[in-house]
Amino acid sequence: MSSRDTIQYAPDAGLLMIPGDPAKDFAPGFAVFDDSVPALRAFVLGWLRKENVRPAPPKAKCDAVLPVRVGLVPRPDNDYDTRAVSVAAPPHHGGSVLDRHMGYLYSSALHVTSESIRDLTEEAGTPVGCHGWIELHDLEADGRFYDDEDDDDGDGEDEDDADWEPSRHELVSWTEQKAFGYAVGSVRVLLPERQTVRALVDSYLAARRQEADRCTEKEPAPTGVEQGLRRALAERLAIRLRTGLSHRAAGGAWGQETERDRARQRRDAEARPLLRAWATYQSSPHGFRDLRAVTRSVFHHTRILVLDGSGVEVGQYHQPDGPLTLVDERVRAEALDALRVHGVDVDTSEDLVTLGGFPDAVVVAGGGRWSLRLSKPGVSRGGLPEAGWFDPDSGTLTVYAASLAEPLTVLLRRHGVRPLLVTWGTPREEVERHNLRAAVAPAGISPVGRSSRVTAAAQRLVPEPHRRWLGAKPDAGEALAAKAGSLLPPLVDDTVENPYYRRALEALFGAPVDLAGRGPCRLCGRSSQSARQGLFYCHGCCALARNGVLRDTGADGAWTEAIVYALRRLAEIEFSGPPSLAQLDRVCVPFEDSDLVDEVMLCRFLVPRPGSALLSARPSRPARTWTEWLGHAGLLTDGVRTSMGTATTATDGHLCRSLFERHVDDFLHHWGVAHEPEPAYPRHPELNTTGLRADWRLADGTFVEALGLMAKEAYAAKVARKRELARHHGLRLVTVTAEDLGRLPEVFADWLPEDSAG
């Protein structure tokens, strides 16, 4: 496994060796079929010697390796892909390329090596190869391991091997592996990334051309040059034709069906019902609404997302030139309109109406390739099975079932690309395993978006049916209590100087953090700080109170009942009515009642934030907005939708024209601040000729305005008149915007009782 940085000829192997670094480079397997098993078995057996064993490289998923060198031979005769590259034993093993053929590189690796290997082989006239290894695994970790004394016959041979025959899944018998001392796994080839291979080949060929220019006569090629590829192919073709003709004459079939043929037929049969289902899918409504595009930046990484009205991510526009990938292809027209409104210049070269035969599939773009995945109810995008992949550099679409070629081509054209070549291929080994897992994956996304470790003592503040969502482990907590005399787990000192932690703690409790004070978190026991006397909460619990443990999955269940309980409890003990989303950022209960503070913190754990929703590609319902969650909890039973908002009655009976007004009214009522609704402003011959009214008047004559529609020009002009009118008459005027909902204790600090949370 060489780490040299140049291509060099290895006389003992008869190969031009492409260098590789085991610590950095990718080491894929390759596709093995029935006809290549004998050559691969002979190759592996030739290396099974103890003196060849080496420690496994860092990226290898095995216990040890046998370093090997293999040939990489372009195979334009391949029926399925003319770019195919054969993995073959080196020339010194004897026989032609076809005799030494051990398998084909997977289609995903061809964009790394195919063109470069072809150029290097054709111009140099020398077989090309690379380094690799045979995976070895510890026998003790293998479930088949047993002692020799279990051999009942005493002949030194295992009964399990009596009928054993080599296959692509097991090249070496169990008896041979036990004798060697390791379980033998796959053969891996070590390949640098595409740009590195291209640079190595270009450098080698450039140096070779310069040397050729200096020489008047071309030097003879090194020994080991493969001279008989064309002849070997012709001989193999003649043999296959004779065999096929004899089979045809005897039984009406051209030849013996291989495992590869059976796998292809199985995938084609599984794909045919999808075509019928997609015809119905294309004409059915998608269920998303109010699409809009937003730009978000995190740690200097900017993304342009398409969201629906509830804040769920529907798609992403990959900068700088696309594509626009979506969770549901039916929303493409609306998503493109949303991007244009956002200022993104999206060019659609083809009419979407003419491209109606698209599949129920999504495109996952990244890593130099696009993965085409079939949608499945209740499964996130990362868990969907792969139906094919697209290489943007070469324009090649590879599908795993021939019947999917046309709909997947339409899908790519809707993404703004037109495949130059459509081929059929076999999934890579890891893709095949992924698709098998996807076939038996549970049909549902977990509503738990974040984990927590609430102690048994704190957990008792929540009714028993809802405790499981807090992630507490009562048994473990009780064991710790018996050992330490408390229900709190041992302290972990994780309160380092963290500005994000201090910011979250100060926002929740509206006071600066006591940097000198340390104590156990009241909810989980970890070392923490406080912003109010005796109320210690760690960074993790503050984050969960601000973001929630649960998330909307688009399918109701027991977790929905926990959310309803938490919203109703917060409305009862903290806000005297339905809270706004912004109000959850501030704890507004008497801080002297520490158990009450713990309870409202845990209720915040159970309340999902709309932006955290994670839906499957086909949810049973759209994600709920915050207003819809309040309505689902029965907190807006009297709400009436108007052009100004949702008209509702506050807890104290005052009529409010919007939820924004109700949040403020409920806050004043909850904290005992006397307030009169709809007071009239003093008359004025110019400023008040229509009988202007404020939203509330406090006991000392202060007027309060809830400014919810400042984006409207007429509304903003009326507010300006009210401000001028208050200044003219010497009235104190307090204005509240939606951004102030999280800091109402500060806004109304002058009117709150002295011992209140504010």
Task: Write a structural description.
With 758 residues, the protein is an alpha+beta fold. It is 32% helix and 18% strand. It has 19 helices and 28 strands. Strands 1, 2, 3, 4, 5, 6, 7, 8 and 9 form a nine-stranded mixed beta sheet that branches. A hairpin with a 2-residue loop joins β14 (361-366) and β15. The radius of gyration is 35 Å and the shape is elongated. The two termini are 68 Å apart.
Shape: elongated
Helix content: 25-40%
- What is the residue-averaged pLDDT? 82
Count of discrete alpha- or pi-helical segments spanning 4 or more residues: 19
The total beta strand count reads 28
Structural class: alpha+beta
What is Rg? 35 Å
How much strand?
A: 15-25%
Largest sheet: 9 strands, mixed
Low-confidence stretches are: 145-157, 221-226, 472-494
Distance between the termini: 68 Å
Features:
758 residues, alpha+beta, 5-stranded mixed sheet, 19 helices, 28 strands, 32% helix
Briefly summarize what is shown:
The protein is an alpha+beta fold and 758 residues long.
Give the helices and strands, then pairings.
Layout: E1 8-10, E2 15-18, E3 30-31, H1 37-45, E4 54-55, E5 64-74, E6 85-88, E7 101-105, H2 107-124, E8 128-138, H3 174-180, E9 182-189, H4 194-214, H5 229-251, H6 259-283, E10 292-298, E11 301-307, E12 313-317, E13 324-326, H7 332-341, E14 361-366, E15 369-374, E16 386-391, E17 396-399, H8 405-414, E18 421-424, H9 429-439, H10 456-459, H11 474-484, H12 499-509, E19 519-520, E20 527-532, E21 535-537, H13 539-547, H14 558-575, H15 594-606, H16 626-632, E22 640-642, E23 645-649, E24 655-656, H17 659-670, E25 675-677, E26 696-698, E27 703-707, H18 713-729, E28 733-737, H19 744-747
Parallel strand pairs: 2-8, 17-18, 27-28
Antiparallel strand pairs: 1-2, 3-7, 4-5, 5-6, 5-8, 6-7, 8-9, 10-11, 11-12, 12-13, 14-15, 15-16, 16-17, 19-20, 20-21, 22-23, 23-24, 25-26, 26-27
